[in-house]
Amino acid sequence: MPQWRHVILLALLVLGLNSGASVVALDSASNKKFYHIVDGRVDARTYNGFKRYHAGCNHCHGPDAMGSSVAPSLLERLPEIERFREIVRNGVYRGAAAMLGFADDPNVSPYVDDIYAYLQARADGALGRGRPNRSEQ
Q1: Phi, psi of 80 (to 5 degrees)
Q2: Which letter, b or e, does each residue of 12-21 get, where b requires 16 or more Cβ atoms within 10 Å of its Cβ?
Q3: Are residues 15 and 43 in the same domain?
Q4: Are residues 58 and 77 in the same domain?
Q5: How far is 76 from 73, CA to CA, in rounded Å?
Q6: Which range marks the domain in which residue 2 is found?
Q7: CB-based contacts of 93: which residues, under 8 Å, 6+ apart?
Q8: Residue 108 carries which DSSP code?
């Protein structure tokens, strides 16, 4: 086999391995847990998400994200992180119902992933209702 064919085969093999690794990395990212709970104590991100949620989101989505007459529960069908970011920052409009976006809100927009960590822990059943215990770190 000529030398150039070896180079092409090697390049195809490397590209094939890299694309496979990308699929695994994307799949792992979609299953990522944004929260960390050890001995019943949440990490700083999740605790901050609890505080941010209860400072702004609970007015519509209810205490502990369980829904209200104004907005649905966020625990039953928590979207993937990318969709969650889009919804929170840009809002959602469905007929007469609407959720305004928070892209310009300095108390929400920079903390979307923290809020997601709290909601993900609640949705997974890893965190109960009420104020979570914060880890010392």
Answers
A1: -60, 160
A2: eeeeeeeeee
A3: no
A4: yes
A5: 6
A6: 1-31
A7: 99
A8: T
Residues 14 and 44 in one domain: no
Q: What is the pLDDT of residues 7-38, one digit of tens each?
A: 344 443 333 333 333 333 333 345 699 999 99
Contacts of 119 (CB under 8 A, 6+ apart): 49, 53, 65, 74, 75, 78, 84
> Residue 91 to residues 52, 78, 85, 104, 114: CA-CA distances in angstroms?
17, 15, 10, 12, 18
Q: How many residues does the chain have?
A: 137
Query: In the predicted model, what is the mean pLDDT of residues 44-57?
Result: 97
- Closest Cα partner for 125 from 79, 73, 76? 76
CA distances from 13 to 3, 4, 9, 10, 60 (A): 16, 14, 6, 5, 52
The amino acid sitting at 40 is G
| H helix or E strand, kind and range, residue 97 | strand 97-100
**CA–CA dist 123, 136 (Å, integer):** 24
Number of domains in the chain: 2
